[in-house]
Design a protein that fits this description.
alpha/beta, Calcium-transporting ATPase, cytoplasmic domain N, Rossmann fold, six-stranded antiparallel beta sheet, three-stranded parallel beta sheet, 12 helices, about 20% strand, P-type divalent copper transporter activity, HAD_sf, repeat, transmembrane, copper ion binding
């Protein structure tokens, strides 16, 4: 639903839960990531004071690095901890368990020691599963490209019926994943709403941006959904097919009508002893051709998506 919440706080080395949350919220205060905002919101609700940062650095696809009271704090995924030589100890099993429940575990280290894990989860939108089922009924394969770890992605995919999972993808690599799908001979429609989705939206054959998303995403997309309802994705595809069908009908009618009408207007019937077409009647017939095409196109106003 785009409203992630803190679900679990697991501590290590005797660190207090509220203290860990306070440090994490202080670190994430300058971040615009939805998971970071969930941590800050939870700290605010518990009345925890935000600490002053001496240093802040965002590490794309990994997390953040900050300094509070002279101590280096790392907050992010498993990759960040491994690359920073932080031992995960016995919390790796806990992290895997949280991920298998569809939650996103974030590690927090203070200095060179792992301090704990904060897990954040977002409720799957009610219409997400319906939208995917509808896409399946239309013969469309559904893939998910996410920066989340594989276990979390698999848990969410299982809930909604996603066919293919592309997990632990760095923000700059999303467009490359779209290219790989296109290299398989597939026509790719990409649905996204964030800044990180913009290159992938531009790379896809059809970019579809969620209306509540960022301006950059909407600028990069071919289609913008006015609501944050994924059921609008199959609706957009249905409307596109109806529109193409209508265009083909209009072209067929226009070509057929003119193929018959123009020779008559030129007097071909007169050659064989028939009447000459009055110019007024010819003009009316020409107008009728345009009006009939327009009326056929107006039938699209009665379009109703199949739910």
């Amino acid at each position: 639903e785009g409203k992630p919440k803190v679900t679990d706080i697991v501590v290590s080395n005797g660190v207090d839960q509220n203290k860990l949350l306070q440090i994490a919220a202080s670190a994430e205060k300058g971040s615009e990531h939805p998971l970071g905002e969930a941590i800050v919101k939870d700290a605010d609700e518990k009345g925890l004071k935000i600490l002053k940062l001496d240093f802040f650095k965002a590490i794309p696809g990994h997390g953040i690095k900050v300094k509070i009271d002279g101590k280096v704090i790392l907050l992010g995924n498993r990759k960040l901890m491994i690359e920073s030589n932080i031992s995960l100890k016995d919390l790796e099993e806990t992290s895997d368990k949280l991920a298998s429940e569809g939650k996103t575990p974030m590690y927090i280290s203070i200095g060179d020691e792992l301090a704990g894990i904060i897990a954040v989860a977002d409720t799957v939108k009610e219409n997400s599963k319906k939208a995917i089922e509808k896409l399946h009924s239309m013969g469309i394969e559904v893939a998910m490209i996410t920066g989340d770890n594989k276990r979390t992605a698999e848990a969410i995919a299982k809930q909604v019926g996603i066919d293919r999972i592309l997990a632990e993808v760095l923000p700059q690599d999303k467009a490359n994943e779209v290219k790989k799908l296109q290299a398989e001979g597939k026509k790719v429609a990409m649905v996204g709403d964030g800044i990180n989705d913009a290159p992938a939206l531009a790379q896809a054959d059809i970019g579809i941006a969620i209306g509540s998303g960022t301006d950059v995403a909407m600028e990069s997309a071919d289609i913008v959904l006015m609501r944050s309802d994924l059921m609008d994705v199959p609706t957009a595809i249905q409307l596109s097919k109806k529109t193409i069908s209508n265009i083909k009908q209009n072209l067929f009618w226009a070509f057929g009508y003119n193929t018959l009408g123009i020779p008559v207007a030129m007097g071909i019937l007169y050659i064989f002893g028939g009447p000459l077409l009055n110019p007024i009647i010819a003009a009316a017939a020409m107008s009728f051709s345009s009006v009939s095409v327009l009326l056929n196109a107006l039938r699209l106003k009665r379009f109703k998506p199949a739910r």
